[in-house]
Amino acid sequence: MPSFARLLTLTLFAITANAATTGIVPPSQRGIPDAFDIQIIDVQTDTTTIEATVPLVDQKSGANDDSPPNHPVPETVVTAVDGKVLDVGISARTENRMAGSPNLAKRTVPGYTQVFAGTGTRQTDRDGSIEGTAYLTYTVLNNATYDVDGCLNFCNRVNGCVFANLYYEFNNYLLDFVFSEKSNLKCAVYGDVHSAAEKTNRGGQQQIPPPAGLTYVQHSSGWSSKTLSDPAPPEGYELVFGPTGGANNAPGYMGFAFIDKYDVNACAALCNTRGADRNGGACQYFNIWRALVNGVPTTYTCSFYYLIADESTAVNYGQGDLKVTYSRGYKRKPLLLDGGFEGYTCPSASEDFCFATSYSAWVGTSPKGGSLDATIFHYAPYARVGHGVGLLGSASGVDSLPGTLSFTKALSTVAGKEYTVGFFHSSVYGGESAAKEAFVEVLWNGNVVKTIRPGYEPWTFYELRATARGGDRLAFRGGKAPAWSFIDDVNVFAL
Ligand SMILES: *[C@@H]1O[C@H](CO)[C@@H](O)[C@H](O)[C@H]1NC(C)=O
């Protein structure tokens, strides 16, 4: 048994050897990082800006333009982003995305209820048609009868329709002389339910030269489907809560958009394509809700978060004239579980520091002759959040070879589909000069799809896109001790 003095000498020698060129205590010996740079700023939902933007948008419309009947339902349009109203709304869809349908269950005509009645058709009766949100399209029905069933059947055929407004429009040149139907009975359909208070289009235009009168509306009735079916979750997402009357007031907020109808697929497409937050990473959650102003549907909000929220923070019910309705939360489904290395724990719960070359989710390998070149640590000071973190570069600092950290499972990807891979990286451990040669390669099925040479850098988010071949493999290769690279909060999401 060596003497105490000898043990001490050995230990000292070990430290000296590791730090031979750098003087840095390596991670395996619980060294202290050059900087504790974890600055996760707690950005909460900016309810003030959202609420101040509501009165600035006008999303009300109806079948009151010159477009012919039966035009296809236009794509969902973004009307405001982060408090800025868009003059010309932009389509919420993006290149790689299939335009998902709202998937509302088909209803039979008996599945409707009357919301309001028309004025009648006496000579003096005057009425108004609806100008409201989420207008979809309209049709012209034969006016031999006041064809409620025909109108509700039309609503059944239009994706997303939950409400129909049936009315006569007189002295309309196109209806009287141009459109093939030669009828003045209009059926306008909507993706939201409206009330008699919204009968604001009362005609008044001179469309046919005098002695013809001005346009006017008669017998305008409103019908809504009895049940508003739940929308199917967007692809790559799952429902977290809702519908409730509370919008999220939650941390990890990234911003918001207003869209012109209640369209969960549009919110998802916006979340998928919203640029990552440097501090928080990719959009991982959205909250969709409808704003009622004095009881009238006014706009549809999508708010975006890099942290996953739930119903416990869905406590913004609106204030004053504004009421939150149909609030639902959806989170993005991760393809890679335990990208935060939190599944790795020390043998005893009382230990707060340990490391290993592998556990169930990740395995680290060193090249020939290397030692501990890719490891997993359980130690809060090294992790971005929580306790777990991956390390590239010899944990004991005995060599300067790069290691490889591989996710042990094949990802449940679909061949041909695009995915986004995100991760956080930090290379501050050994200080500025030690970090000069820091590098990390992202390997997708063994191929390098991204390389970073960041030098000295605090926790920073990176992302890339990769096309799947199905059952794909993800790994990180890098580190050149003392240029250590810590990797944390890795995610893979469908685009
Ligand atoms: C039916 O529509 C035609 C064309 O707009 C119109 O001339 C006629 O007066 C309408 N009939 C009724 C009963 O409203």
Describe this structure in words.
- This protein has three domains: about 45-55 and about 230-330; about 105-225, no CATH class; about 335-495, Jelly Rolls (Sandwich), CATH 2.60.120.260.
- It is about 10% helix and about 30% strand.
- It is built from five helices and 23 strands.
- Strands 2-1-9-11-10-12-8 form a seven-stranded antiparallel sheet, sandwiched between helices. A six-stranded antiparallel sheet has the order 13-15-16-23-18-21, with no helix packed on it.
- β1 and β2 (about 85-90) form a beta hairpin.
- The chain is elongated.
- 2-acetamido-2-deoxy-beta-D-glucopyranose (NAG) binds near residues 143, 176, 182 and 183.
Helix proportion of residues, in percent?
Answer: under 10%
Radius of gyration: 30 Å
Name the helix and strand elements from N-terminus to C-terminus, one letter apiece: HHEEEEHEHEEEEHEEEEEEEEEEEEEE
Strand content: 25-35%
The averaged pLDDT comes out at: 90
Uncertain segments are 1-20, 94-108
Largest sheet: 7 strands, antiparallel
CATH homologous superfamily classification of the largest domain:
Galactose-binding domain-like
How far apart, in Å, are the first and last alpha carbons? 61 Å
Bound molecules: 2-acetamido-2-deoxy-beta-D-glucopyranose
Q: Rough shape?
A: elongated
Number of E-type strands:
23
> Widest sheet: strand order?
2-1-9-11-10-12-8
CATH fold name of the largest domain: Jelly Rolls
The CATH class of the largest domain, by name, is Mainly Beta
Q: Number of domains in the coordinates?
A: 3
How many helices?
Answer: 5
Structural class: mainly beta
Based on the coordinates given, report the CATH architecture of the largest domain: Sandwich
Keywords: Signal
Organism: Asterophora parasitica
Protein name: Fruit-body specific protein a
